[in-house]
Amino acid sequence: DVAVGALPGATQEIIDFILQFWGLDWDAVLETTTDYMTNTFNPTTPDMPGVAYYSYGGNGLFLLNPKLWLSYPITLLYQGTNDGMVGVSSSEWGTYLGTLNADHFDEVGQPPDETEFKHLDFYTELAR
Questions:
Q1: Given 65, 66, 105, 124, which residue has the most CB atoms within 10 angstroms?
Q2: What are the residues whose beta carbons fall under 8 Å from the beta carbon of 86, sequence distance 6 or more?
Q3: Per-residue pLDDT reduced to its tens digit, 75-123
């Protein structure tokens, strides 16, 4: 949200440049805004009756990837405890199962095995 509207000047161009450096694009940013999630994604992707929904959040403070050093304090200011990209408050969907000591990249295993958080072990145990 901050990247899309709250910062003045050439914020979009700077963030787009950084994203392109990582092989990503600006559309990825637009699809993570509160407006998009509230007005586009959630209305077109309703919960299915009879399906149980569970969620985890992340606290990346102690295992933060350097690529998230800028986004972590901004997200902290707007959403509190976060994984470097998503606030715990935004992570809660269905039954909230807890907050992991992991940053956003750790939670999805990108890049793999960069920190102590073992995403494959976590998801394997979760599936069991």
A1: 105
A2: 57, 58, 75, 79, 104
A3: 898 889 999 989 999 899 999 999 999 999 989 888 766 677 888 899 9
> 5 or 17: whose pLDDT is higher?
17
**Taking the complete model, does pTM exceed 0.70, yes or no?**
yes
Q: What angle do CA 110, 70, 54 make, to 5 degrees?
A: 50
Distance CA 84, CA 98 (A): 16
Amino acid at 63: L
Q: DSSP string of 51-117?
A: ---EEEEE--TTS--GGGTTHHHHHHHHHSSBSSSSBHHHH--SEEEEEES--HHHHHTSSTTSSS-
B/e letters for 25-42, b = 16+ CB within 10 Å, e = fewer, are: ebeebeebbeeeeeeeee
Alpha-carbon distance of 69 to 61, in angstroms, equals 9
Of 1, 68, 61, whose CA–CA distance to 34 is shortest?
1
Structure tokens at 108: 């999805």
